[in-house]
Amino acid sequence: MTFASSSPGNERSITELFDCFKNEFSFKLPCNEQEKRGAFHLRHDIYCAELHYEPPTDAKRQLEYDAFDDSAIHCVVEHNWTGLTVGCMRVVLPVHGDFSNRKLPLLTYGGQSLTNPSLHPDSFPKESICEVSRLAVHPSFRKTRSNIAGVKEKDIHDLEVKHRSLPVGLSLFFAATAIVGMAKRQHVFAMMEPRFARLLKISGLKFQKFGDLIDYHGPRAAFYIDQQQAEAEMHEQLKPLYRHIKQQLAPQLAAAMPRRRLATATS
Predict the structure, then answer these.
(1) Torsion sign, CA atoms 172, 175, 181, 183
(2) Which of 37, 108, 223, 265 is the most buried (most CB within 10 A)?
(3) Is 185 among the domain residues?
(4) Rounded to 5°, angle at Cα 41 from 143 and 245
(5) Structural domain of residue 138, as residue ranges?
(6) What is the pLDDT of residues 204-230, one digit of tens each?
(7) b or e along 4-41 (b: 16 or more beta carbons within 10 Å of the residue's beta carbon)?
(8) The domain that contains 21 carries what CATH number?
(9) What's the rounded mean pLDDT across residues 143-156?
(10) Residue 95 forms beta bridges with which residues?
(11) What torsion, rounded to 10 degrees, do the Cα atoms 240, 243, 245, 251 define?
(12) pLDDT per residue as tens digits for the range 29-45
């Protein structure tokens, strides 16, 4: 991706674009149930109330969560000027010693669609894999309402040519890249729309499709990326934003790591 030079008095420079984004948004890793409610509430508003993808887990408190949240690192984007949670996603880590959370979410609803044995999650050591899921962006901060990440390919081309603004949904995938690297999980999986995978590829995150297209909240397929390769191949002009996000998240990671539960624990 190549960013065009801005005309004087017209569009903002790429440096100004990053500065505006850094001033407007903060990245946080919730480390207790109270702090995670912002993500669960946003997920409810989008996955349950807006798109009707999932039934509410807690309709009274308007929260959406599932069994995999206990074994995940959660990330939220907060709007500095209003305090609003405007984006969220999670990185699910299979937990050793916990029989209920040894698999990734995509294996529970899309396991039969995985067609490339060499990229199947079971082909890698459990301590090296993770899954990025439950990404959502507040409607007020989307470039488009056509998907919950709130961004499409045109937005990236606009960014290249016109320097308009950085999509929150894209920044969450940069956050995920930083998190899985710091957590030493090299092999990353996600179930996503092929059009969003194309968007990420334009941005330098080259996910590889390794499963058939299935109907899961719309057309979805399983994708894989090597975290080390993703970090190395990230576009140079986006690396300052990536380094900023990673710098924000690094001091928070230890407290946000899911706690190991004993195999003998009862539900």
Answers:
(1) negative
(2) 223
(3) yes
(4) 55
(5) 14-249
(6) 899 999 999 998 888 899 999 999 999
(7) eebeeeebeebeebbeebbebbebbbbbeeeebbbbbb
(8) 3.40.630.30
(9) 50
(10) none
(11) -150
(12) 999 999 999 999 999 99
Whether residue 153 is contained in a domain is answered as yes
Percent of the chain with pLDDT over 70: 81
E-strand ranges in the chain read: 25-28, 72-79, 85-92, 129-137, 187-192, 208-209, 214-215, 219-226
Helix (H) or strand (E) holding 84: none
Asked whether residue 9 is assigned to any structural domain, the reply reads no
- Residue position matching structure tokens 């969560």: 65
CB 26 within 8 A of CB 80: yes
Pairing relation of β-strands 85-92 and 72-79? antiparallel
Count of structural domains, the chain: 1
Distance of CA 174 to the CA centre of its chain: 8
